[in-house]
Design a protein that fits this description.
Number of strands: 11
Strand content: 15-25%
Order of helices and strands: HHEEHEEHEEHHEHEHEEHEH
Distance between the termini: 52 Å
Structural class: alpha/beta
Helix content: 25-40%
Shape: elongated
Oligomer: single chain
Radius of gyration: 24 Å
Length: 314
């Protein structure tokens, strides 16, 4: 029987590779400053710290235009009025809040890696970074955690709510994912995401996008019509390209084993074509709907991941 110390060492050895602890996600607050998230005009009903295309009295000057009946005389632009000879009034941009939603994929396929860390751990790290960045910006953060079922968190600025989100996320990276009932599970979850997304929100979808069929992708396209959507695709190098060897390779999920004969040229060619087509489908979807796509690898270092995020979200 293992001692407590042995169990603790075993626990520590898996942290950051096969699961992510709450303490580690809390420590990611220090990396937030390196992210340069794009600031775009948004629409929302609540006051906050982000600009909106809605015009009114607010923090930032937008433009001057001809005076119209009903305009506040306190907003008259006397300089433009004197120069043009016609009464002009100042128009301001209201600063408004931007709700942020995270959809985090924790289905069975995310619990995989041949290098670096599990895809689920990469997703947890990115979600943590985005969460802390959102709170620093004064916005509300919420999301859905999908592991075959889903756990939903309403957008909130509360730190206690954020900690609850991270605690649940950490537990899911340690726990056994729920096996999907069908390929429609992804479509159903993104349909739910679409229904809870308010117009003007910023939405991040963190996934390996396995089983992202056209019906599921249509849900994301509809979200992008009224919100700022960003896709964060997470892959392992093995999924993108098989090792250059003619030997055999054994894969396991802890219960089942799969023996791959990498020397079969026909099988390797079919695998390569399928990978290429899958990647092209996602890239074409992103391009056609003008949705930013960030590509991350399980083998990325912390600095590489931050650089890709800052470039992709700029």
């Amino acid at each position: 029987m293992a001692t407590v110390a042995e169990r603790n060492r075993s626990e520590r050895s898996g942290e950051g590779i096969v699961f992510r602890s709450l303490q580690a996600m809390l420590s990611l607050q220090g990396q937030v400053r390196t992210l340069r998230l794009a600031k775009k005009h948004i629409r929302s009903r609540h006051a906050g710290l982000h600009r909106s295309v809605h015009k009114g009295r607010g923090m930032d000057f937008a433009e001057s235009r001809m005076y119209q009946p009903g305009d506040d005389i306190r907003s008259i632009d006397w300089r433009v009025t004197a120069r043009s000879g016609r009464v002009h009034t100042k128009v301001f941009e209201e600063e408004r809040e931007k709700p942020v939603l995270l959809w985090v994929d924790l289905r069975p396929s995310m619990f995989f890696a041949t290098r670096g860390r599990f895809k689920s751990v990469v997703a947890a790290d990115v979600a943590s970074l985005l969460l802390w960045k959102t709170l620093d910006d004064g916005d509300r953060i919420g999301g859905l955690l999908q592991n075959g079922e889903h756990v939903e968190f309403k957008p909130s600025r509360s730190r206690s709510a954020a900690l609850h989100f991270l605690r649940e996320l950490s537990d899911m990276t340690r726990g056994k994912p729920v096996v999907e009932r069908s390929r429609s599970d992804l479509q159903a979850s993104w349909t739910r995401l679409r229904r809870v997304t308010q117009p003007g929100s910023q939405v991040f979808v963190l996934s390996d996008f396995r089983q992202a069929n056209p019906a599921a992708l249509r849900q994301l396209a509809m979200i992008a019509e009224h919100s700022q959507l960003t896709l964060v695709a997470i892959h392992d190098p093995f999924e993108e390209k098989l090792p250059a060897t003619s030997g055999s390779l054994r894969l396991t999920d802890g219960k089942r084993n799969l023996l791959l004969n990498l020397g079969l040229r026909l099988w390797r060619d079919r695998y390569a074509k399928r990978v290429e087509q899958t990647a092209k489908t996602l890239q074409d979807f992103s391009r056609s709907h003008r949705i930013p796509l960030v590509q991350l690898s399980t083998a990325d270092s912390d600095n590489e991941r931050l650089l890709k995020l800052s470039r992709g979200l700029r």
